[in-house]
Amino acid sequence: MSQAELFIKPLTSWMDGSGIDSDIVLSSRVRLARNICQIPFPNRANIAQLSKVEENVEEIIPELAEATGKTYQSMSIDKLSTLERNVLVEKHMISSNHIMNPENRLVIVSEDDKISIMVNEEDHLRIQCMVSGLDLGATLEMASKIDDTIEAKLDIAFTEDMGYLTSCPTNLGTGLRASVMMHLPGLVFTRQINKIMNASTQLGLAVRGLYGEGSEVIGNIFQISNQLTLGFSEQETIDNLTSAVLEIMTHERAARKALYAQSPDVVSDKVWRSYGVLKYARTITGNEALALLSEVRMGIDLNIIHNVPAKVFNELLVSSRGNYLQNLKDNGNLSPNEIDRQRAAMIREVLMNGSND
Amino acid sequence: MSQAELFIKPLTSWMDGSGIDSDIVLSSRVRLARNICQIPFPNRANIAQLSKVEENVEEIIPELAEATGKTYQSMSIDKLSTLERNVLVEKHMISSNHIMNPENRLVIVSEDDKISIMVNEEDHLRIQCMVSGLDLGATLEMASKIDDTIEAKLDIAFTEDMGYLTSCPTNLGTGLRASVMMHLPGLVFTRQINKIMNASTQLGLAVRGLYGEGSEVIGNIFQISNQLTLGFSEQETIDNLTSAVLEIMTHERAARKALYAQSPDVVSDKVWRSYGVLKYARTITGNEALALLSEVRMGIDLNIIHNVPAKVFNELLVSSRGNYLQNLKDNGNLSPNEIDRQRAAMIREVLMNGSND
After folding, report:
1. Does residue A111 sit in the same domain as residue A136?
2. Chain A residue closest in CA terms to B357
């Protein structure tokens, strides 16, 4: 994907709904935090030191390409427009943290969007790998390959007793954060979600909204990730998360079935009404759009709605976000009302084209 | 219209939207209350006396046909099923009062549905004439022709000082109740409706819901009628009501224009969302359907919605009523939930066929 395409195409390859169990698990992601020895952590480093990190990492790109068989592009955050930066956040390619101080910040992205490496975020290196559906093993393998390549060239901060050293102690050890994005309308509508979330927390997992820490839950989408990085191996971490996700998935499928079995009319009425509103609304906020899209997606999964391909939901998840819409039109000069109109028009267009009723 | 058609066809000719200003005035109606001398009012009459009234009136049908150039059918209320009786009420052909004690009650209906004569309702004769749009003059002329024919054959109770004698003193004098059914979403949404209604009351007019006295306002439809029958001529009564209706109509048009001019996005979003819900809902109550239909109709009138003919609204006004739906299916054995599903299915079908989006 060229840089221009990255900002314009709504669907990233790891969100295309092609993966395992991707009706419920939208995507799997791992992130490794790494730091280079002898250089202070980014929030303590001076410009020369930050530049040194950038140089070090950019030099390794050819080796990364060879090790992974992918091509990469490196982008300086401060050379991107504010809008482009925000689109990358909405597409989960970088964190919102990474655009706070854009100077001497890089992001290196693979052409298939599945790998992104943030340089000089909270740590010198944040290696992210993402795939569609539930497959944390594949993402860990991919991330480890990149990590191995980097460690072969750079001296990475690591001690026998503490593992990888990181800027924030919560990442100390493996430096691994594994997370899955789950669509859980069944558990929300049957009011089981809090019970499930509490149980997850007790298992050492964190549950958050679509945009990670501090973000609210919209569209019934939840990010579930490991909290502990010390005292567990990488494999144990992803095994633990995977088994919790499988458990939640079983509950979600059961909840949907029970919901539909108990009151098929109520459920089909709900999902069809949401479809009707999405198809005809002339103005819609991002949060309302996601809530309605979530119901339509459940309707597709429950075989109530046949005429819309499931990936329309995944696509609209990103394309209904404000900055993405801004970037498509008028270079960011849209008012909030204009964005809401633009969003409604875009959703209408997708549903009119994507459906055949 | 044959008797069978009367119960199955949703649209009566005086509701087809063909009349003057029928975008706002759905229909005009006059009703004359008459009683035959020497026979007690229906609530005091015995069976023999009620039968006598029925006979007297049925004998005049040939003269009525000649005077008006229409054919008539006479139906005994007690020979109709409960459902059929209720359909006639929903179609405004008879009052809900008229089916309370169905024995010795008749209704005589013209083949074009524009004339209905209730026999032995509160008065011996209740002559009703209805047309599409605003044209009280035409309805009064039609009713007077029938009245003249009846008075030429029967001795009608009338005194010089009190006019026509009626069972209830509120009808004494002309025995005339003129009313118009108005669709006033603009005044409702701009919150001017109470002001307008209070002014109407001060002008001696009564304001009620879709089904007359005691019925709630649904679908932003109001019945406006004269309250006074003593001290005014028939012509004065309809002139007074017509001028009030014209005034309200001016306010309604101004309200719609202002609403749309001030916030075109909000208005078009509202009407399109209502359309979307009507088109896709799988279950819907009668009142919700009317509320949404009212918004869609306003959207048609404001040229926001082009792909639906306006008369779909008028048709659905009747066909979304519970008894009409009952009568179409399973002979009245539908549960309330089944009616709501049936209603949603019927509306969907009409909108899918009637529209071309």
Report:
1. yes
2. A352
pLDDT of the residue at B215: 60
Element (H, E) at B159: strand B158-159
Choose one of B235, B256, B277: the last residue of a domain: B256
Q: Are B211 and B329 contained in the same domain?
A: no
Co-location of A200 and A62 in the same domain: yes
Q: Do A273 and B281 touch (CB under 8 A)?
A: yes
| pLDDT recorded at residue B331 | 63
Q: Which pair of tokens denotes residue B268?
A: 């078009």
pLDDT over 90 at B89, yes or no:
no
| pLDDT in the model for residue A215 | 59
**From the list A265, A266, A280, which residue is nearest B273 (CB)?**
A280
Same domain, yes or no: B243 and B213: yes
Among chain A residues, CA nearest to B271: A281
Residues in chain A closer than 8 A to B351 (CB atoms):
none
The closest CB to that of B283, out of A269, A275, A280, belongs to A269
Question: Can you give the CATH number for the domain in which B202 is found?
Answer: 3.30.590.10
Q: Name the residue range of residue B306's domain.
A: 263-354
The residues that bridge with A64 in the sheet, in sequence order, are none
Which chain B residues are within 8 Å of A344, Cβ to Cβ? 269
Test A281 with B276 for CB contact under 8 angstroms: yes
- Specify the DSSP class assigned to residue A16: S
- Nearest CA distance, A339 vs chain B (angstrom): 12
User: Tell me: the pLDDT tens digits for A49-60?
Assistant: 999 999 999 999
Same domain, B249 and B275: no
Same domain, A46 and A14: yes
Q: What is the pLDDT of residues A93-115, one digit of tens each?
A: 999 899 998 999 999 999 998 99
Number of domains in chain B: 2
CA distance A355 to B338: 28
- Location of structure tokens 């040194």: A52
Residue A172: CB atoms within 10 Å:
17
B44 near A CB under 8 A? no
In degrees, rounded to 5, the angle at the alpha carbon of residue A220 between the alpha carbons of residues A216 and A222 is 65
How far apart are the CA of B274 and the nearest CA of chain A, in angstroms? Answer: 8
Q: Report chain B's mean pLDDT, rounded to a whole number.
A: 90
Q: Is B240 on the interface with A (CB under 8 A)?
A: no
Whole-number Å distance between alpha carbons of A287 and A300: 20
B120/B269 same-domain check = no
| pTM metric for this prediction | 0.82
The Cα of B337 is separated from the nearest Cα of chain A by a number of Å equal to 9
A:295-354 residues touching chain B, CB 8 A cutoff:
337, 341, 344
Which of B229, B256, B283 is the last residue in one of the domains? B256
Q: How far is A220 from chain B (nearest CA, A)?
A: 22
Grouping H, G, I as helix, E, B as strand and the rest as coil, residue B222 is: strand
Q: Are residues B233 and B319 in the same domain?
A: no
Strand, coil or helix: what is B317?
helix
pLDDT digits (tens, 9 = 90+) for A67-95: 999 999 999 999 999 888 988 888 889 99
> Pseudo-torsion of CA B261, B266, B271, B275, nearest 10°?
150
Percent share of chain B, pLDDT over 70: 94
